[in-house]
């Protein structure tokens, strides 16, 4: 009864949960034992738009050889079933011009709604639309004249989710879970269109390599995960994505990692055989988090022909692009409902090694190892 009361208080006030242990989480890795991954259809890209506490996002990352690195994102956030807010974010990293500051735009959206099939999102001066054939997204936003977005992201390889559903479940009765985590990926895409800024005018992203992720955190984010690692590698021939979260002790500090590797026209492999390691770190003197300086990401799985495949990407992260104080970006109403949680101080560290491009090394069966240089956008997130 005491744990039930603690959990109820945590749901309402944002306080820490009791320690249920690893039996209260069903990792998507269990599904992946039988079905490593599923190629997605338009039906898998529907917005859930939960009426209880959740954070649901669609985010598009674009990298290019010569231009800026960017992401654009729409966020649907429900707080305790009391209030729903939506936000559109644009971030432009001028990675080839050290003199220019990163442009960050985060705009509240008004009058949000979804298409009848729940596959497209609309708000005042904003639209994120899935094409009829399910192969591209159109992203338009005129909410901030500092960054007017008019982009199209078209996949050049199938999308995937790990397992059959892509879901990790949380709860003491996993047949009736009280929370979930799910990711859907388009790992290899091509961009077109522009973002128009006051300083630059239209920035053309035609031909940029892109990644799309649809993510649903179906309960309070700080209850789901204490830490995150994310890697997005885009090379001339291959794309690799890795998403890892580590739960708080309330769910046994369980590590869940999903990802895959794709090339034009196919998923090479995908599943839960990935790792993310901070090989070297330095203490951030402002908040005491161990900021990574050198990383190692690995992928392991089975190709369609049954061959074993392993891949590795490792090296220095160089100087970070940004460090984000998440609570500084959270609307005041959300902070009030979430409450202050002991030990929670979420920061996101973002990286894009520029001086030395990192290389993805892929080994398939007895074939010679393939090495491919490309762009890495990486994040390390510390929450609690």
Structural write-up:
The protein has helices at 2-13, 28-32, 221-224, 326-329, 332-338; strands at 25-26, 37-39, 54-63, 69-79, 83-93, 103-108, 113-114, 121-123, 126-130, 136-141, 148-155, 160-162, 167-170, 179-197, 201-204, 209-217, 227-234, 239-246, 255-263, 266-271, 274-283, 290-302, 308-316, 322-325, 347-351, 359-364, 370-373, 375-382. It has a single domain (25-382), classed as AttH-like fold. Mean pLDDT is 90; it is low at 1-15 and 333-342. It is mainly β and 384 residues long. The longest helix has 12 residues, at 2-13. The protein has five helices and 28 strands. It is found in: Cytoplasm. Residues 55-217 form the Svf1-like N-terminal domain. It comes from Sporothrix stenoceras. Keywords: Cytoplasm. Belongs to the SVF1 family.
Q: Largest sheet at a glance? A: 14 strands, antiparallel
The total strand number stands at: 28
CATH names the topology as AttH-like fold
Radius of gyration: 20 Å
- In the predicted model, the low-confidence regions spanning at least 5 consecutive residues are 1-15, 333-342
Reported CATH architecture: Beta Barrel
CATH class, anyone? Mainly Beta
Structural class: mainly beta
Coarse morphology:
globular
Assigned CATH superfamily: AttH-like domain
Number of domains: 1
Measured as a percent range, the helix fraction is under 10%
How many helices does DSSP assign? 5
- For the termini, the CA-CA separation is 26 Å
| Residue fraction in strands | over 45%
């Amino acid at each position: 009864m005491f744990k039930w009361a603690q959990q109820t208080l945590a749901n309402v006030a944002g306080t820490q949960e009791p320690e249920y242990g690893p039996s209260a989480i069903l990792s998507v890795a269990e599904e992946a034992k039988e079905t490593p991954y599923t190629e997605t259809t338009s039906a898998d890209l529907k917005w859930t738009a939960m009426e209880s506490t959740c954070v649901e996002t669609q985010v598009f990352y674009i990298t290019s050889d010569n231009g800026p690195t960017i992401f654009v994102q729409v966020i649907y956030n429900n707080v305790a079933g009391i209030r729903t807010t939506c936000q559109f974010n644009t971030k432009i990293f001028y990675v080839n011009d050290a003199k220019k500051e990163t442009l960050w735009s985060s705009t509240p959206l008004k009058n949000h709604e979804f298409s009848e099939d729940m596959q497209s999102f609309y708000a005042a001066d904003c639209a994120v639309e899935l094409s009829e054939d399910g192969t591209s997204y159109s992203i338009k936003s005129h909410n901030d004249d500092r960054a007017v977005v008019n982009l199209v992201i078209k996949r050049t390889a199938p999308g995937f989710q790990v397992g059959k559903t892509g879901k990790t479940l949380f709860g003491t009765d996993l047949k009736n879970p009280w929370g979930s985590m799910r990711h859907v990926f388009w790992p290899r895409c091509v961009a077109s269109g522009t973002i128009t800024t006051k300083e630059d005018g239209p920035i053309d992203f035609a031909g940029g390599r892109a990644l799309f992720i649809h993510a649903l955190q179906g309960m309070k984010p700080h209850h789901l995960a204490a830490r995150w690692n994310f890697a997005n590698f885009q090379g001339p021939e291959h794309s690799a994505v890795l998403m890892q979260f580590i739960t708080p002790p309330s769910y046994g500090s369980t590590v869940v990692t999903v990802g895959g590797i794709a090339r034009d026209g196919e998923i090479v492999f995908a599943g839960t055989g990935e790792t993310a390691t901070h090989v070297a770190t330095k203490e951030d003197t402002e908040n005491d988090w161990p900021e990574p300086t050198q990383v190692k990401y690995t992928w392991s799985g089975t190709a369609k022909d049954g061959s074993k495949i392993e891949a590795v990407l490792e090296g220095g992260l160089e100087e970070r692009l940004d460090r984000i104080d998440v609570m500084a970006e959270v609307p005041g109403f959300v902070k009030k409902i979430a409450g202050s949680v002991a030990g929670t101080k979420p920061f996101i560290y973002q990286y894009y090694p520029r001086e030395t491009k990192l290389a993805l090394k892929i080994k398939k069966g007895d074939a010679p190892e393939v090495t491919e240089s490309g762009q890495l956008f990486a994040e390390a997130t510390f929450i609690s």
